[in-house]
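Shape matters. Shown next:

___
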Amino acid sequence: MVERGYLLLSRTPARSYRKNPWSNHYQKRAMREQEILQIKEATPDHPVLDVIKKRWSPRVFADRRVEPETLKQLLEAARWAASSFNEQPWRFILATKDEPEHYARVLDCLIEGNQGWAQHAPVLMLTVARTTFTRNDKPNRHAWHDVGLAMGNLVAQATALGLHVHQMAGILPEKARVVFAIPDDYEVVAGVALGYFGNPDQLPDRQKESEQMPRSRKPLDDLVFGATWGEAASFLDT
């Protein structure tokens, strides 16, 4: 303060500031998570959309709620997928941790190996396909394909919103049929864990290692054929 033309300095001792060790811990963890996300980003041979490069299937999810409005956006993206005769054979059984009993029933329809990590995801789903056409009850041999298209839309939308999706073949379809009274002309296709990426240190060592490895894909020459099966299409050489 100022008195009679003199500046009087306060004798109050300076406040001591100590860095919060938890703040440092969370900062390091966030940096580590970002590092893994960069490792997991695809390195395509040809330009693709960012949501394709950034999409991957983690086994660890943050303890963070996925808001209902966000879930609606994901399912709306799935709803607008293409399908044979516009049949739209996809159905989804979805559970969040806001409904613990329902969530537990979906979790019980996964094999034990998947339950261990999937139980931490804020959202679990079962995808289901109607196997007959509504218009004539004839078999729809493309139903599973079309469920995959719907999930492709959902996954792309999720990636664009900063979410991750892990789809699982390791499920108990007949148990799910009984638990959820699924009709005979529907088949359970896959399990789904959905949420925000979490801390990979929570995983067992074996899973932690795979969670931090770069992704890879077969070359187009092995996948795209021309006039003869097994021989790469000629345009791939241009």
